[in-house]
Amino acid sequence: MRFVVALAALSVLAGSAQAQSVEEFYKGKTINLAIGFSVGGGYDLYARHLARHMGKHIPGNPTIVPQNMAGAGSLRAANFIYTAAPKDGTAFGTFARTTGINPLLDSGATFDGTKFSWIGSVTDDVSLCITWYTTGIKTFDDFMKKPSNLGGQGPSSEPDIFARLYKNVLNVPIKLVPGYPGTNEITLAMERGEVDGLCGISWSTVKTRHAKWLKEKKINLISQTSFKRVPEIGDVPLMLEQTQDKEKLQILKIFVGAQQMARPFAAPPGIPADRKAALVAAFDATMKDPEYLEDAKKLDIDVNPVSGKAIEDLLAEIYALPKDVLKKAGEAVTK
Question: Is residue 142 within 8 Å of 61, Cβ to Cβ?
Answer without folding.
Answer: no
